[in-house]
Design a protein that fits this description.
Helix 2 packs across helix 5 and helix 3 packs across helix 4. The protein is 65% helix and 8% strand. A hairpin with a 7-residue loop joins strand 2 and strand 3. With 150 residues, the protein is mainly alpha-helical. The protein is built from six helices and three strands, in the order ααβααββαα.
Length: 150
């Protein structure tokens, strides 16, 4: 068996490490930028959907959201129909850093895909999406308290 998931993991960790170093001057740490970008791109998203989108547990998401709110990057607002639901929005401070985060993401994509033809990029994306869907099934299964059979 090829060590594909190890390669994917190394890529993800390297890019995360680079981002954490580069975004430190903006007071964004430990992957907070992922949450900020998703909230900016999905204004009004609820915490549970954000956690699912990033594929983290609710507690991890809650800590990151709480820190982003305390730092002034995002704000919670009551839902118009259900006051128990809090919707997430970026603040002016969050809106100001988003273009930098977007440029970094585009740069990282360009570096990572350097030397690949457009057809190879499309194939890679298509295959990685299939892999993600496969992994998502197990993630949901285990998240619901089930145990996988090895």
């Amino acid at each position: 068996m090829k060590e594909i998931l190890r390669e994917v993991g190394m890529i993800a960790r390297a890019l995360d490490s680079i981002s954490n170093i580069e975004f430190k001057e903006m007071d964004l740490t430990k992957g907070q930028y992922l949450y900020l970008v998703r909230i900016y791109e999905h204004p009004g998203i609820i915490q549970e959907k954000l956690a699912e989108m990033i594929m983290v547990d609710r507690t991890t998401a809650a800590r990151a959201i709480q820190k982003l709110e305390a730092q002034g990057f995002i704000q919670k607002r009551d839902d118009e129909t259900n006051k128990k639901i809090k919707r997430l929005f970026t603040t002016e401070k969050g809106n100001q850093v988003y273009p930098i985060l977007k440029r970094e993401g585009e740069h990282s994509n360009a570096v990572a895909l350097e030397g690949l033809s457009p057809e190879e990029v499309n194939t890679l994306l298509r295959l990685l999406r299939r892999v993600r869907v496969n992994v998502e099934k197990d993630w949901i299964f285990v998240k619901k308290g089930n145990k996988r059979q090895y």
